[in-house]
């Protein structure tokens, strides 16, 4: 029997990285690490990994982060309007998707 893995964060959710000091929006979720075996070092590959579009003053970048390194960001309930218009499409429920991807 296979264990079911349920992601803690959903597409479009704003999160922050506990150690790397960035905030961003979840744009994709893998149920487990999708890279080469052993590439995670001490981080367990058997957990959801997220692609997060991190936003900063210099622009944005994509980070690939394990679930145990991310947390809900209570300080940032929405993305600044300028960043929203530049990087995302937003549906009526407020879910974000990168302009290059459809909202799931």
Describe this structure in words.
The chain has a single domain, classed as SH3 type barrels. The protein has 104 residues and is mainly beta. It has one helix spanning 81-87; strands at 14-17, 23-30, 49-56, 59-66, 70-72, 88-90, 96-98. The model has no long low-confidence stretch (mean pLDDT 80). The strands form 2 sheets. Strands 4-3-2-1-5 form a 5-stranded antiparallel beta sheet, with no helix packed on it. Strands 6-7 form a two-stranded antiparallel ribbon. The radius of gyration is 14 Å and the shape is globular. Residues 6-99 form the Hemimethylated DNA-binding domain. Keywords: Stress response. This is Heat shock protein HspQ. InterPro entries: Hemimethylated_DNA-bd_dom, Hemimethylated_DNA-bd_sf.
Rounded Rg: 14 Å
Q: What CATH first level would be assigned? A: Mainly Beta
**Mean of the pLDDT scores?**
80
Q: What's the SSE pattern?
A: EEEEEHEE
How big a fraction of the residues is strand? 35-45%
Number of domains: 1
Uncertain segments are none
Which of globular, elongated, flat, extended, rod-shaped describes the shape? globular
Instruction: For the largest sheet, list the strands in their spatial order.
Output: 4-3-2-1-5
* CATH topology call: SH3 type barrels
Keywords: Stress response
GO molecular function: DNA binding
Domain Hemimethylated DNA-binding: 6-99
Organism: Brevundimonas basaltis
């Amino acid at each position: 029997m296979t264990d079911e893995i349920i992601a803690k964060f959903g597409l479009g959710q704003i999160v922050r990285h506990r150690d790397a000091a960035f905030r961003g929006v979840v744009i994709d979720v893998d149920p487990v690490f999708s890279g080469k075996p052993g590439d995670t070092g001490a981080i367990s590959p058997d957990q959801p990994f997220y692609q997060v579009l991190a936003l900063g003053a210099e622009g944005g970048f994509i980070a690939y982060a394990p679930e145990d390194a991310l947390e809900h960001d209570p300080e940032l309930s929405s993305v600044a309007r300028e960043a929203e218009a530049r990087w995302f499409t937003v549906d009526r429920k407020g879910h974000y998707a990168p302009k290059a991807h459809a909202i799931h």
